[in-house]
Design a protein that fits this description.
InterPro entries: Anti_sigma_zinc_sf (IPR041916), Znf_put (IPR027383). There is one protein chain. This protein is α+β, with helices and mostly antiparallel strands and 255 residues long. Among the domains are: 15-61, no CATH class; 145-254, Immunoglobulin-like. The protein contains 8 helices and 8 strands, in the order H-H-H-H-H-H-H-E-E-E-E-E-H-E-E-E. Strands 1-2-3-6 form a 4-stranded antiparallel beta sheet. Helix 2 (26-36) runs parallel beside helix 6 and helix 4 packs antiparallel against helix 5. The longest helix has 44 residues, at 81-124.
Length: 255
């Protein structure tokens, strides 16, 4: 019978006070400890009651209190070894679960943090010491795209090929850039048929450049592959431009 039906037996949650007072018999204490091992609310209440020990100890020392010392001893009673073992096991398991969750979150965050710079270096090419990282991700994507447009500017002699793929959200593009020397900071700009301009990506060109056929180093002979995206569908695109941050157009590729 439940307490609401008039039973004199308190609920397990209400037993925390009796347990803290030390007035439960062994069977009742054992049953409550089993409940306590899985009940955070009762564990919190027990912690709060345990925090009253200094006050209870002071109460036990009051003069003329008669039986008060015994009550104080009962109120300040500590959990039994059985409870301690169960609580330690429970806390250890929860901490292990938290560590596992933290590890997965950190691993996922690290993957995102690492992937960003690596993708930028791999696609953008080049490094501080003059070397160039192979553009595997962008170049691999470029090779799978069948819709490609190429142009070479008669004035700058910069050559560019833009590969496109239609997506539900718009257009994915990969630029192959050749015969460009630095130092420069450039952007791939999409120009829509309605006149809107969208920057799809940007990068830096090192001194030795990209795709220089007569270059002295193999790194400088390699073209740049860099990806970008925009919300426009391929049939909404008029052309692409490779422009410097100063606004100079290096090459235009018609869509």
């Amino acid at each position: 019978m439940s307490p609401s039906q008039g039973s004199s037996v308190p609920s397990e949650h209400e037993t925390v006070g009796a347990y803290a007072l030390g007035i439960l018999d062994d069977a009742e204490a054992t049953a409550f400890e089993a409940h306590l091992a899985g009940c955070e609310w009762c564990a919190q209440q027990l912690d709060e009651l345990a925090g009253m020990e200094p006050m209870l100890a002071a109460l036990a020392d009051l003069p003329g209190s008669g039986s008060t010392p015994a009550i104080g001893d009962s109120l300040s009673a500590r959990p039994s070894p059985r409870l301690v073992e169960k609580l330690v096991d429970d806390v250890a398991e929860k901490r292990a679960q938290k560590r596992r969750r933290s590890f997965y979150m950190i691993a996922a965050a690290a993957a995102l943090i690492i992937a960003g710079p690596l993708a930028a270096v791999a696609i953008g090419g080049g490094s501080d010491d003059g070397g160039q990282v192979t553009a595997t991700p962008a170049q691999a994507t470029f090779s799978t795209m069948s819709d490609k447009k190429t142009a070479t500017d008669a004035s700058t002699h910069v050559s560019a090929t833009v590969a496109m793929a239609q997506k539900v959200w718009g257009t994915e593009a990969v630029l192959e850039l050749k015969n460009v020397k630095g130092p420069l900071k450039c952007s791939l700009v999409l120009v829509a048929k309605n006149g809107q301009r969208v920057t799809m990506s940007s990068w830096s060109v090192p001194n030795w450049g990209y795709g220089i056929t007569d270059a002295k180093t193999e790194d400088a002979k390699k073209p740049l592959y860099i990806g970008g995206a925009a919300a426009f569908q391929p049939n909404e695109i008029h052309h692409f431009e490779v422009v410097t941050f100063e606004g100079k157009k290096l090459v235009q590729v018609n869509a």
